[in-house]
Amino acid sequence: VQLQASGGGLVQAGGSLRLSCTASGALLSGYALAWFRQAPGKQRELVASIVSGRITTYKDSVKGRFTISRDDAKNTLSLQMDSLKPEDTAVYFCNTLTISWRWGQGTQVTVSS
């Protein structure tokens, strides 16, 4: 399974980005999925998760600003990020919530102040 995250970029504080994730070689349906991020010098952390019943959870610092969603018909996972802050700067990765697959390269999100 190859995971491909995309949609990152450079944005000013207060701006928005929408990340997408596709998986080659696997169907995302039936899995609890998640977005993770890793900032320079820090450990990778869970940002948001979604299960097949559309139940979502979020890291406290992104609640109300980030929205995770999935489209099983298109085999994609998304993360809408609004009101971005410099502390959101990181490489963002997608995977199952239990980290079933090898990590992809991720997508860089840089938020300038």
Word description of this protein:
It is a single chain. This protein has strands at 2-6, 9-12, 17-24, 33-38, 45-50, 56-58, 66-71, 76-81, 90-96, 107-112. It is an all-beta fold. Strands 2-10-9-4-5-6 form a 6-stranded mixed β-sheet, with no helix packed on it. Strand 5 (45-50) and strand 6 (56-58) form a beta hairpin. It is globular and about 40 Å long.
Summarize it:
The chain is mainly beta. It contains no helices and 10 strands.
Please mark out the parts with pLDDT under 50 across 5 or more consecutive residues, or reply none. none
Rounded to the nearest angstrom, the distance between the terminal CA atoms is 37 Å
**Spatial strand order of the main sheet:** 2-10-9-4-5-6
Residue share in β-strands: over 45%
Shape: globular
Write down the overall mean pLDDT.
95
Q: The biggest beta sheet, please?
A: 6 strands, mixed
Work out the radius of gyration.
13 Å
Sequence of secondary-structure elements: EEEEEEEEEE
Give a count of the beta strands, DSSP E runs of length 2 or more: 10
In helices, the fraction of residues equals under 10%
Number of helices: 0
Quaternary structure annotation? single chain
Class derived from helix and strand content:
mainly beta
